Amino acid sequence: MWEIQERFGLDALATVDRAEPEPGPGQVVVRVRAASLNYRDLLTVEGAYNPRQPLPLIPLSDGAGEVAAVGSGVTRVKEGDRVVGNFAQKWISGTPSRERLRTSLGGPLDGMAAERVLLDAEGVVAIPEHLSFEEAACLPCAAVTAWNALVAQGNLTAGDTVLVLGTGGVALFALQLARLLGGRVIVTSSSDAKLERAKALGATDVVNYDTTPSWDEAVKTMTNGQGVDNVLELGGAGTLARSLRAVRFGGQVSLIGNLSGLDAQLNLAHVFMRGVRLQGILVGNRDMFEAMNRAITLHRMRPVIDRTFAFDDLPAALEHLKGRGHFGKIVLRVA
Ligand SMILES: NC(=O)c1ccc[n+]([C@@H]2O[C@H](COP(=O)([O-])OP(=O)(O)OC[C@H]3O[C@@H](n4cnc5c(N)ncnc54)[C@H](OP(=O)(O)O)[C@@H]3O)[C@@H](O)[C@H]2O)c1
User: Fold this and answer.
1) 130-162 pLDDT per residue, tens
2) pLDDT (tens digit per residue) in 79-92
3) Ligand 1: residue whose CA is nearest its atom 24
4) Is the pLDDT of residue 335 over 90?
5) Do the beta carbons of residue 315 and residue 4 sit within 8 Å?
6) CA distance 89 to 93
7) Which atom of ligand 1 is nearest to the CA of 283?
8) Which residues contact 298 (CB under 8 A, 6 or more apart)?
9) Could you give the angle at the alpha carbon of 130 between the alpha carbons of 32 and 111, nearest 5°?
10) Cβ < 6 Å from ligand 1: which residues?
11) Residues 67, 146: contact at Cβ < 8 Å?
């Protein structure tokens, strides 16, 4: 398994052996077959996500595998079942809470960069039949976050227009899920080549935010001056002001990411004078995950995997994420 050891930093990652986990009552041991990377994992390893996180820590919130052993009283799953971990083990339904979030994998709890992990039987979700372990490992954080912003908090309906910033993990799930639900999707990216790939995935309109710095105006033009119904705000401080100008009266800006920083300066009139809803999004609960999986199964939707790395190459995989060359998800093959 991989550990962030005595200090933070990509160079502080090391492979170690720990005792084989044994399932207690209500627990399962999962033989992990694949894990995936999120921007949060990079921040965690670098110490920027939670500088007070006790170490050592096994990183990565997302992983999929087979149930290898079950503890007493477990009826939800059995040995051999293909499962994926729920991001916050004890967040089954309802709103987030401090107690529920304390059970998040990959910090504060040990994560999925390990051959075998101990999880709550209630904290795993069945893998859609048509997905491989690599594909299923992409779902817990990025896809559930996109689903929460679009469906649980966004009430997306056919014909709605969604603006998605960038072409990373959350962004491409938002594109795929919004299209599957009948939405029109506008995607921004710093790369024309990535925008072409986004079109192939169903993006109806695209805009390059490097060559068109006033991308909010371009989005307004694409929507007959109205603005979009829902912005999946992944950029953070550097993009929020433009996102607020790109949303329609009464629309929603789903605050998800901080790729360009956390401290934003805002003209509040752009929010209240236009009746805009600023909705914070925090991943999602198990009920959302299972609802999303029903849609993914029905439409045989497949996550977009940019690249798969060998287990020993976790530091290189994180460097690849940091380099922003990726399109979709970065996966670690575990066994
Ligand atoms: N609130 C939550 O629960 C939650 C859950 C998941 C993720 N997040 C956050 O959401 C963000 C995205 O996460 P991820 O894992 O999907 O990241 P990721 O896969 O690393 O996506 C990064 C991509 O975003 C685009 N990008 C980078 N800087 C940008 C900017 N200033 N403006 C617009 N786009 C930019 C780039 O796409 P192009 O190359 O196409 O330009 C980049 O490749 C992160 O901030 C993460 O912490 C939050």
Assistant:
1) 999 999 999 999 999 999 999 999 999 999 999
2) 999 999 999 999 99
3) 166
4) no
5) no
6) 11
7) 3
8) none
9) 20
10) 38-40, 141-142, 145, 165-171, 189-191, 194, 209, 234-235, 238-239, 256-260, 281-283, 321, 324
11) no
